[in-house]
Structure formats: C-alpha cells, structure tokens
Amino acid sequence: MKTKIAVAVRCMKDKDYTYHYANTDYLYMLDKIDALGVPIFPLMDAKQAALTCDGLLLPGGADLNPALYHQLPDPTVTDYFDEIDTLDLNLIQAFMQQHKPILGICRGLQVLNVAFGGTLIQDIPNHSQKADRHVLTHEVKIVKDSQLASILNESTQVNSLHHQVIDRLGDGLKAVAFSSEGYIEAIEADNILAVQWHPEALTHEPDQLRLFKSFIKQCQK
After folding, report:
1. Given the residues 106, 162, 185, 219, the one annotated as active site
2. Region of residue 191 (phi > 0: left; psi between -120 and 50: alpha; otherwise: beta)
C-alpha cells in the first residue's frame, strides 16, 4: 500500500469565483517516489486527515495574513486567504497531536514558524529569482549534525521563489540552514522539517529528490 501524504490545497480568486487547487508538481513528485498525495480542502476534517494519512505536506502558496503574527500588512502583502491559513494551522495541530511527520515548503515553512509563535519579514525586494523555477541560483549552508545535514550534507544549491523570510524564530524550532545574507532557509523540530526553497521543482537534482524520499521513509515508520 502506498504511503498517504495529506497535501494542503491552495487558493486563487478572480472577480467571480474562488478556486481551491492541489499543485500537481507536489502530486507528481509524490507519485514518482511511490507515495500518494491526498489533497485536503478547507471544511474537511483536519483530525480525520491526520488519522488516515501518514504525513503532512505544506506546499508553497500565497502569503499569510500578517494579523496571525500581530502585524499590519505591508503594501506588498495583498494576496492572502484566511481559509487557507486556517486550514494549514488546523492541519499542523492535528498532525502534531498524532506525532506524524510534517514537511513544509516555502509558505509551508513560514506558516509553521507562525504556528510556533514566530514572525516574518513581510517583504524582501528583488529576492525572488528571475530565472526559471527549475534553475539553481544560490547556495545554502546547513548546520552540522542537523536532520537536514544528514540528508543533504552541509551545503546545497537551491532556487529562490519567495519574498518573505523568517524574522523571529518560533518557540521550539531550530534554524538549520542559512543563505549567504543570513536568512533562515530551513527549520526543524520533532517530526518537522521545512525548507524555504522549492525542491519539488528540483527533483532532477539527486539531493532534492533525496529530501522527499527521506520524508516518505520517516512517514513509513
């Protein structure tokens, strides 16, 4: 039986409709390593998802509502969805209660930090790369003896598709990777690993595919 991974959906709106969707990059990546991505939508029961799935994947997506970390929105923060913020926070709580692994990617890292009481820098101008998302553009240094270092060694090349980063680190989280500017690029805690870059766009890179394989192996335990 395939390992079942709950994948939080994301949201987009036009003038008439709201759309909830599962990013196929994540679903294809999970299928590639013989796991099954299970999209979880708002109004679905987070506790039931945590009971029936083996792990949780929190993908990239729109910014969080800054009110969640007690800030007024920067002018650049115009595209947030309260129903998705609530979905992510409920899923984090439910999977933590079941002691099941959580992997956060980009926004996923940010919402985990906020869930643990941390804050974000709302905008870093010109930080997101102009190159295609599949292109490696910078190096991150990884803390020795961390869970992430056991997967990727002490450095790796990554992409950069975000304009927000962690400011104050959440309680109980450990920063385990850093950019050359000193921004936090990865965090860990018990059963939690999250990265700021987008490894689902880099599965042609053996290091990044190994990150997902390690997550699935942990879920199978």
Report:
1. 106
2. left
* Domain CATH for 45: 3.40.50.880
Residue 219 catalytic?
no
Q: How many domains does the chain have?
A: 1
The string of pLDDT tens digits covering residues 100-158 is: 999 999 999 999 999 999 999 999 998 888 889 989 889 999 999 999 999 999 999 99
- For residue 70, indicate whether it is catalytic: no
- Is 0.90 topped by the overall pTM? yes
Domain hosting residue 177, numbered range: 3-220
What per-residue string of b and e applies to 194-218 under the rule 16 or more CB within 10 Å gives b? bbbbbbbbbbebebbbbbbebbbeb
Task: Find the catalytic residue in 11, 20, 162, 200.
Answer: 200
- DSSP codes joined into one string, 131-198: S-TTS--EEEEE-TTSHHHHHHTTEEEE----S-EESSPPTT-EEEEE-TT--EEEEEETTEEEESS-
